[in-house]
Amino acid sequence: MIEIAGTKMALNDPVVLVAGGIVTLILLLLFMSLRASNRSARMAEPLARQMAHLGQHVQQLGQGQEQLRGGLQHVSDTQANAQVQVIQTVESRLSSVQQQMNDRLADNAMKSARALAEMQERMKESLHGSSKQTATSLTQLQERLAAIDKAQDNITKLSGDVLSLQDILSNKQTRGAFGEIQLNDIVSKALPSDSFQLQATLSNGRRADCLINLPNPPGPIVIDSKFPLEAYEALIGSTNDMELKAAVQMFRTTVRKHITDISQKYILDGETADGALMFLPSEAVYAELHAKFPELVQESFSKRVWIVSPTTCMATLNTMRAILKDARMREQAGAIRKELGMLHKDVERLEDRVSNLDRHFGQAAKDISDIKISAEKAGRRAQRLDNFDFEELAPGDHTNVVPLGKTEG
Fold it and tell me: Membrane-spanning residues where (predicted)?
């Protein structure tokens, strides 16, 4: 039982139970509110501290803004002063540069005036020298014109000589003689005089223009210089296709016949080499033959007739000279071997005599050594004889006398 305001109530009374529950709930809510307020107070403390810090920062920012305003004012004043100083410096430098420019312009004007005066003087001297050179050049030009007139006379004379040479080459006999002379000149320059024969007669009665005496093999080789130039002159002088065709046919027939004649006349078994040379006195004919008639060149190869021009003939003759030199060296090889054998015998004989002389020198050296030994002994004996004391000796005292021919001890 409980009593409230004079009213007694049982503990199990529902009203008491509900009122107790409400009171308990109110107390619980009050307790929870207190705990929540304490927690809110604790949570608000850091926020209050942050707000205080933020207020301090705001105050510092205001102070910094004031300082920045003062700094900007100072910078503005400094910049204005600097601009004034720069303007003053630039004005002073501009005035200095202007003064220097004026001075330099005046100096350049003076230099230009002097240079102009010098140039005028040089031009006067140059014009004077040019007039002298012009006079000299005119004199030289007159001399050269005189020389040209003289050369013109020589050309006229040379043209006459060329015409005479053309007349010579138009004749078959004189042209053959000209080819032989040209061949003779080339051969005489390339080979020794005893290695070739001009106008040599072969066993068949044919006369070769030049016979080169090469050793076997290959043996003596013939060079023929009688090349027919009429067909070539007709070839280069043709004016239309018909003349050209006829000239080509005549040139081919003439050259083929000349190759055959050389092969039959100048290639003799057992007497000459297995081939012969056909000499062309003109490089133009040689080039024309190889350029437009290769079948004739091949035919000459098959008939062992070698076609040469003045240039290729010189090269061929130089090769022949090497062959002749090699052959002569082979001929002299026996004599060289014989001389080497005799030289070897002379060397052996010299070795024997040197050995005998060395033996004699050894004996003489031994004799000289013996003579020196004997001379040394004789000298020692003479020295001992010189040291003898010839005072009188007591009778029977012979102990200090050393007989001659014997040594002490």
Answer: 15-34
